Amino acid sequence: MATIRRVNKTVPKKKGKILLGAIADDIAGATDLCYTLVGQGMRTIQEIGIPQKDKVVRDADAVVIALNTRTAPAKDAIRQSLAALRWLQARGAQQIYSSVDAVALKKIRRKHGIVKSRNLVEECLAKISKGLVKAGVGQLILAGSATSGETIKALKIRSLRIGPKIDVGVPWTMSLGERPIHLALKGGSFGDAEFFTRALQTLK
């Protein structure tokens, strides 16, 4: 996981707005992330399940939403994840983080085999990315060559303009079309633990 830098206490923050949102697929993973965020100086709240639409966030820099989607059917997991995304967007989250749990991925591999498991995970992430773009997200950081390829395919992107360098071999790109999308396409062997933080800072 990328190290999340300490938040400067002088950064202006509107009432009810949050700086960082995260979507976890279980409570334990969400709590672990919350602990990390607090250790980096962020006031953090953990929500269990998708919060009510009218819920107001107070005294928090980060909100981590703990879903129970690790063993849920793919369609239900995607539906819940997108609902959590919309809730975070409505609170002005400047950065949103989500990932596939490594332990869950190993269980899927044991059940379905490596090739089929890889395809299932990549297709699921591509569908989530497509839903994010539909919900208004304009920046995607994609880790893994297969994930990048499936997502580009799902979004029907045919051309990319190359932008500033994030890391060796990994620049920001921008899709060419009616609605441009900023994309960081990171191969599995590129980048260090600070890659995701550095990518977001590069685009600012």
Topology-level CATH name of the largest domain: Rossmann fold
The number of domains: 2
Largest sheet: 4 strands, parallel
Say how many strands there are: 8
**Fraction of residues in H or I helices:** 25-40%
Helix/strand/pairing class, anyone?
A: alpha/beta
Poorly predicted parts: 1-13
Rounded to an integer in angstroms, the radius of gyration calculated over CA atoms is: 17 Å
Written account of the structure:
This protein has 204 residues and is of the alpha/beta class. It folds into 2 domains: 1-99, 3-Layer(aba) Sandwich (Rossmann fold), CATH 3.40.50.10840; 125-204, 3-Layer(aba) Sandwich (Molybdenum Cofactor Biosythetic Enzyme, Chain A), CATH 3.40.980.20. The protein is built from 6 helices and 8 strands, in the order βαββαβααβαβββα. Strands 2-3-1-4 form a 4-stranded parallel β-sheet, sandwiched between helices. Strands 5-8-7-6 form a 4-stranded mixed β-sheet. A hairpin with a 2-residue loop joins strand 6 (160-167) and strand 7. The protein is globular, with a radius of gyration of 17 Å.
